[in-house]
Specification:
Elements lengths: L8 H5 L6 H15 L2 H4 L1 H6 L10 H15 L3 E4 L8 H4 L5 E6 L2 H11 L3 H4 L2 E4 L12 E7 L7 H11 E12 L4 H9 L6 H5 L4 H5 L5 E9 L15 H15 L11 E9 L4
Parallel strand pairs: 1-2, 1-4, 2-3, 4-5
Antiparallel strand pairs: 5-7, 6-7
């Protein structure tokens, strides 16, 4: 197995100031992101087994990309708990300024390495930073982005920090897994090796998503994947694309039904008009 010992100077030098929860998240991030198929073989397959489910997300990814293009052009943008930068690469060439931050130094090192040779990505200011308390000035950004990060964080702290950092009229774009589908959540419980204990216990539900309205005045949202997941076992067959198209059509109806939509696997939501800035 590749060297998975934490390379994080932050974790090694700040044990007294970083909560144990965050240290575990850093350790897991370092471990997962430094696995390679070539060096780690079976362990890579074991710890990335859930990646197969992302074969169905192309349509969602394109819709998110279009939202980002429409809302970030010429703006100051911050990607919160960015991982290897999930969203900024879509729009790095059109934003005014771009900051991507993550608490795990190894993650930021990998993001910087992947940006080399790409002029747009090299413009991103990558920083090691606790995104629950960034220390950045109030009203620093027009748009904040996060993908799959809130369930790793203290939710109130993350919402509060995003609202503080945004300018009046700013937008906080979030893409998160949702906890209410019993089959999907059982899978999470049965595969503890794929995530930290904190993560599985803090997957967002309807109350946690709507909690954002304690810090923002407006929310818009869209849900994805109730039955589309059925296509995953067929991903390497000719049946996959036509089957997925049919299932996506069914999901387009189901995810508009108020009660049913919360059974979706994922939801993106946009919190806007941060409070106390009107």
């Amino acid at each position: 197995m590749s060297n998975i010992a934490s390379k994080s100077n932050l974790a090694e030098s700040s044990n007294e100031t970083i909560e144990d929860r965050k240290l575990k998240e850093i350790e897991w991030s370092d471990f997962r992101r430094t696995l390679t198929k070539e060096e780690d073989g079976a362990d890579f397959d074991k710890y990335t087994a859930n990646l197969k489910y992302y074969c169905i997300i192309d349509k969602q990814t394109e819709e998110i990309k279009q939202w980002l293009i429409a809302n970030t052009k010429g703006k100051d943008v911050f990607e919160m708990a960015c991982g290897n930068t999930a969203m900024l690469p879509h729009v790095a060439g059109i934003v005014r300024t771009a900051v991507a931050a993550d608490i795990a130094p190894v993650t930021i090192e990998l993001a910087k390495n992947s940006a080399k040779g790409n002029p747009d990505l090299e413009k991103i200011d990558y920083r090691v930073m606790d995104c629950e308390k960034t220390g950045l000035p109030d009203n620093s950004f027009d748009v904040i982005l996060e993908q799959g990060a809130l369930h790793h964080m203290d939710l109130d702290a993350a919402y509060k920090e995003a609202a503080r950092l945004l300018r009046p009229g700013g937008k906080f774009f979030c893409l998160e897994a949702i906890r209410h589908n019993p089959v999907i959540h059982l899978y999470r419980r049965l595969t503890p090796h794929l995530r930290t204990a904190w993560e599985v216990d803090h997957i967002l539900g309807q109350p946690q998503v709507m909690k954002g309205l304690e810090y923002f005045n407006k929310i818009e949202k869209k849900h994805y994947y109730i039955v589309s997941i059925i296509a995953v076992p067929f991903r390497n067959t000719k049946l996959f694309k036509p089957l997925l198209a049919v299932l996506e059509g069914i999901d387009a109806v189901l995810t508009r039904i108020p009660g049913m939509q919360w059974l979706a696997w994922q939801c993106w939501f946009v919190l806007s008009e941060p409070k106390n800035k009107q």
